[in-house]
Amino acid sequence: MSRKNLNGVHIPHRKNTAGMQAIKMPPPATVTIPMSMHIGKPANCIVAVGDHVNVGQMIGEPGGFVSSPVFASVSGTVKKIVPMLQFMGATCQAVVIESDGQMTVADTVKAPEITDYASFINAVRDSGVVGLGGATFPTAVKLDVKDTSRIQEIIINGAECEGYITSDHRTMLDRTDEVVEGCRLLEKWLDVKKIIIAIEDNKPRCIQLYRKLTKDEDGMEVCALKSLYPQGGEKVLIYNTIGQIVPEGKLPLDVGAIVLNCTTLANIARYCNTGMPLVEKCITVDGSAVAKPKNVIVPIGMKLADVFEQSGGFCQEPKKVLYGGPMMGIAQHTLDAATIKGNNALTCFAASERRRRAAAHCIRCGKCIDVCPMHLTPVFLFRAQQRGSIEALERGNVLDCIECGSCAYICPAGLELVQSFRTAKKIIRDAQRREAEK
Questions:
Q1: pLDDT in tens, 91-147
Q2: CA-CA distance, 418 to 381, in Å (whole number)?
Q3: Which of 89, 281, 330, 398 could connect to 393 by a Cys-Cys bridge, CB 3.0–4.6 Å?
Q4: Which pLDDT belongs to residue 276?
Q5: Distances from the Cα of 426 to the Cα of 240, 288, 332, 395, 420, angstroms
Q6: Which class for 283: exposed (0-12), middle (13-18), buried (19 or more C-beta within 10 A)?
Q7: Cα separation of 171 and 156, whole Å?
Q8: Cα–Cα distances in Å, from 161 out to 59, 167, 236, 288, 319?
Q9: Sign, Cα dihedral of 2, 408, 392, 401
Q10: Residue 433: predicted pLDDT
Q11: % helix, strand, coil for the chain, step of 5
Q12: Is it the case that residue 297 has pLDDT exceeding 70?
C-alpha cells in the first residue's frame, strides 16, 4: 500500500438509525445457534437433545486453539441438533433451543478472577468474544502475544464506514463505560502505552464524547478519520492512524499494532465485570424494504424472520437480504438463517434498489485500480482468475485483497469482482494446502 494516496470510494452514508438507541428484543420462540461463528475450527457441541440450558451456559467448547466457545442465548430446552448450511456454502452443527421465555441466567455466570496477563487472556477466551466488526477472528488468539513489548499501539476501531450500519456507533454512545473500561483493561494487562480510538468524522458527537472521556486518561487518544470507505479496514486503519504499512503476508503486530472493534472491546469489559459471555448482539435493521429502521439487541441465533417481524416488518417485498451492509454484506437465501456473532446489521432491499448495467465485460477504464485501498490491480486479477492462472494471481497479490467491494462499486461494467477474488483466494489456499500435504 503506497503512502502517496489514500484510495477508497465515497459512498452514501445513509446512517438513518444513528440517533436511535438500541431496543432489546424479547426472546423468540426458538433460537438456532451454530457451532461455527468464527474463523478457525468450529466449537464442539456439548449438549444433547432434551437438555435444559440457561442464558450464558456453554453449549459448545472450543474445537482447537483458533476457536471460540458458544453459549446459550436463551433459557429453555434443546429441541434439535441439526446440520446448518452457512452463507459460504459450508455446513456445521447447530443447536436449536426452545425458549421458556424466562431468560434465566446460568449459575456459571460469574465474574472471572483476573490477576495477571495469562488470566486476562483466559478470561477473553472464556467470554466467547471474537472480532465483532465482521472478521470474527477469536480475540483471545489475537491478544495472546508472547512478547507484549512488541505491542506499540492498540487501535480501537469505531470507524464503521459501511453504509446504513450504526450498531457500533450505538455501542460507542450507549456503552461508553464499558468501552473505556475495556481500554483500561488493555493498558493494565497488556502493558500497552498507547490506545487510539479511531472514529470517522461523520460521527462528530461520538468524537466529542470520547475526547472528553479520555482527556484525563494517560495513553488514550481519539483520532478523527476522514469519511472514506473502507476506512475501517484493518490495514487501512493502521496506515491512517499510525502511518505504518503492514507488509504483504504479515500481521498488524509486525508493525507493532493490534486492532480491536469497539463492540468487541465493550463485550470483553462486560465479561470481566459480570461473567456474562457473548450471548446477544446489537444489530442495525435498515434498507428500502424495512418499514421501521432501527437498532435492536437480539439473542444470538434468532432467526432473521423473527428479527424483521419484531422490528416492524417490511414496507415492500424484500428482494435481497444481507448479513451486513451493501458493500461487504453477504446475501442470504432464506429468512430462516440465524443471527451470528459477527452479524452487525441486517439490510434488506426492494427490487427498485437493484443496480442494472448493460455491459458485462471489462472496458479497461482503470477505475478499479484508482480506488483499491490496497493498491492492487483488480482488472488484471479478474482476468487472471478467469484464466485460472494461480501464478498471475499470486504475482498480483490477490491474498492482500480485503474484499471491501470498492472496485465492484465503481465498476461501470458491473463485474462481479469481489466474488471473483474470493474464488481466487480459495484456489490459491487449496493449492497451498495440497503442496503442504505432499
A1: 899 999 999 999 999 999 999 999 999 999 999 999 999 999 888 999 999 999 989
A2: 10
A3: 398
A4: 98
A5: 29, 33, 21, 16, 10
A6: buried
A7: 12
A8: 34, 12, 12, 19, 24
A9: positive
A10: 83
A11: 30, 20, 45
A12: yes
Distance in angstroms (rounded) separating the CA atoms of residues 235 and 248: 11
Collapsing DSSP to helix, strand or coil, 255 comes out as helix
> Is 264 in contact with 178 (CB distance < 8 Å)?
no
Grid coordinates belonging to 213: 472521556
Tens digits of residue pLDDT in 314-334? 999 999 999 999 999 989 989
pLDDT band at residue 1 using 50, 70 and 90 as cut-offs: very low
Collapsed DSSP state (helix, strand, coil) of residue 141: helix
Task: Check: pTM over 0.90? Answer yes or no.
Answer: yes
Q: What is residue 335's three-state secondary structure?
A: coil
Has residue 5 got a pLDDT over 60? no
> What span, in angstroms and rounded, lies between the C-alpha atoms of 255 and 25?
41
CA atoms of 415 and 158, how far apart (whole Å): 31
In angstroms, the Cα distances linking 380 to 232, 264, 366, 369 are: 25, 36, 10, 10
**How is residue 60 written as a grid cell?**
459448545
- Separation CA 342–CA 324 (nearest Å): 9
Exposure on the CB side of residue 431, measured as CA atoms within 13 A: 12
State the average pLDDT over residues 77-85. 94
Tell me 22's DSSP state.
Answer: P
Instruction: Give the three-class secondary structure for 76.
Output: strand
CA distance linking residue 114 with residue 117, whole number of Å: 8
Select from 213, 251, 247, 243 the least CA-distant residue to 225: 243
Can you tell me which residue has the cell 431496543?
23
Residue environment code for 227-266, b if the CB has 16+ CB neighbours within 10 A, otherwise e: bbbbbbbbbbbbbbbbebebeeeeebeebbbbbbbbbbbb
- At residue 243's C-alpha, the angle toward residues 242 and 249, to 5°, is 100
What CA–CA distance (Å, rounded) separates 78 from 58?
Answer: 13
Residue 248, sorted as left (phi over 0), alpha (psi -120 to 50) or beta, turns out to be beta
Distance (Å, whole) CA 124 – CA 277: 9
Separation CA 367–CA 378 (nearest Å)? 9
DSSP state of 353: G
Look at the block and give the residue holding cell 490477576.
115
**CB 241, CB 252: distance < 8 Å:** no
Q: Which residue has the cell 449459575?
A: 107
